[in-house]
Amino acid sequence: MINSIITYISDNFSSIVQAGLILIFTIFLAKVVSLLITENMRFASKKLGHRFTVKRVTKIKLIRRLVVAAIYFIGLAAFLYQFQTFRRLGGIMFASAGILGIIFGIAAQASLANIFAGLMISFTQPVRLGDFIEIDGQEGRVEDITLTYTRIRTWDNKRLIIPNKQFFDSKIINYSLVDNNSLMSIVLTLSSDLDLDLVKKKIITEIKKSKLNLLKKEPKVLLIELSSDQIKIEVQAWSEKPEKIWDFSCEIRERLLKLLKSEGWLKK
């Protein structure tokens, strides 16, 4: 019996050594990956505090277990493949892992596309956390960018969840990419008999009373259309709060209405 064991070891010494090295490497790799995922989870938990919810911790733990299980499975297949007796079983395990990988890849195409788009968003940064954007007619501030989706807080405090692939493929207006300044424009029709210089002066004075007006950019009153009995002017003003641009334009409309009434400038 002992002689048979010694003979088997001597005949298969290289296979046994390779199998042992594979076993050690598999255990080492599984421990390192598990430790890295755990440490990253702890770091994120400390950094994000209450935002790092139990739900996220559960997801990360599940991912860690799946990754470690996959490492052990492949390591076991490689271990068995070193021995002639178990080579067929190891080959079957490798083949099943490949088939499962293909099935998973097909099933996860949408998720993988979202993850790839999320990586592209992170590297190219067409939007950043805190940017005020418009996408598909919806406006809001970017609140979170994950690997699979982007979350936007709209002006009415709702949360818009957009898959990253859809987000990456959409046309986006980013009001904050260079700066936060946004332009407000109002068109007025007035009588051509009015003193245009006086109209400009009083309108600009009225705009400057608003707290939303951007002081470093002078408001403008432009003559855009002229006829024998009327003129059209465009009032332009800037605000550094793009999410408040609608409120700003409404406020200016109210101010201009009061000004036009008080000055008797409204066209009959």
Q: Please state the average pLDDT score.
A: 78
The end-to-end span amounts to 116 Å
Strand order of the largest sheet: 4-3-2-1-5
Number of individual domains: 3
Order of helices and strands: HHHHHEEEEHEEHEEH
Q: What is the radius of gyration computed over CA atoms, rounded to a whole number of angstroms?
A: 33 Å
Helix content: 55-70%
* Beta-strand segment tally: 8
The biggest sheet amounts to:
5 strands, antiparallel
The SS-based structural class is: alpha+beta
Strand content: 15-25%
**Form type:** rod-shaped
Low-confidence stretches are none
Number of helices: 8
Structure description:
The chain has 268 residues and is an alpha+beta fold. The protein folds into 3 domains: 2-107, no CATH class; 126-174, Roll (SH3 type barrels); 182-263, Alpha-Beta Plaits. It contains 8 helices and 8 strands. It has helices spanning 2-11, 13-48, 54-81, 87-107, 109-124, 164-169, 196-207, 245-263, and strands at 132-135, 138-145, 149-154, 159-163, 172-174, 182-191, 220-226, 230-239. Strands 4-3-2-1-5 form a 5-stranded antiparallel β-sheet. A 3-stranded antiparallel β-sheet has the order 6-8-7. Strand 3 and strand 4 form a beta hairpin. The longest helix has 36 residues, at 13-48. It is rod-shaped and about 120 Å long. The model has no long low-confidence stretch (mean pLDDT 78).
List the helices and strands and how they pair.
Elements: H1 2-11, H2 13-48, H3 54-81, H4 87-107, H5 109-124, E1 132-135, E2 138-145, E3 149-154, E4 159-163, H6 164-169, E5 172-174, E6 182-191, H7 196-207, E7 220-226, E8 230-239, H8 245-263
Antiparallel strand pairs: 1-2, 1-5, 2-3, 3-4, 6-8, 7-8
